[in-house]
């Protein structure tokens, strides 16, 4: 069972994504901003997928993605990344941070679930 970290400052979104992903058979951890996400990743080194919003307090999603992509310790762990946000950035703009795909809010759940399965199937285990 793959572990997924959901990062969003809105509790309703975090709980919705946890519910959807748990029903798909994944273990889900939650964080309310980027700084909390980095701590969760330290406590859950088996995390295979990070799903993050972009607009958050304390540390936004872009800074979180930048740190994960540029820091050798985090980039070597090979955590896949998806973005779920109302922010208008495109997948091309986020690709420079190693983002596999981005989803606009409100979420297209069938496409989202397919992409989660796809990215976790494509992510090699160490």
From TrEMBL:
Sites of 4-aspartylphosphate modification = 53
Occurrences of domain Response regulatory (ranges): 3-120
Q: Which Pfam families match?
A: Response_reg
Q: Which UniProt keywords apply?
A: Phosphoprotein
| Family matches, as Gene3D superfamilies | 3.40.50.2300
Q: Which SMART domains match?
A: REC (SM00448)
Protein name per its UniProtKB record: Response regulator receiver protein
Source organism of the structure: Truepera radiovictrix (strain DSM 17093 / CIP 108686 / LMG 22925 / RQ-24)
């Amino acid at each position: 069972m793959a572990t997924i970290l959901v990062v969003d400052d809105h509790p309703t979104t975090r709980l919705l994504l946890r519910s959807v992903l748990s029903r798909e058979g994944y273990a889900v951890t939650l964080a309310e901003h980027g700084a909390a996400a980095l701590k969760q990743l330290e406590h859950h080194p088996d995390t295979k997928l990070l799903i993050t919003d972009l607009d958050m307090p304390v540390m936004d999603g872009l800074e979180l993605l930048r740190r994960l992509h540029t820091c050798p310790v985090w980039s070597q762990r090979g955590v896949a990344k998806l973005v779920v946000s109302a922010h208008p950035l495109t997948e091309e703009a986020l690709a420079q941070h190693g983002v596999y795909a981005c989803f606009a809010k409100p979420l297209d759940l069938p496409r989202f679930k397919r992409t989660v399965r796809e990215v976790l199937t494509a992510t090699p285990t160490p």
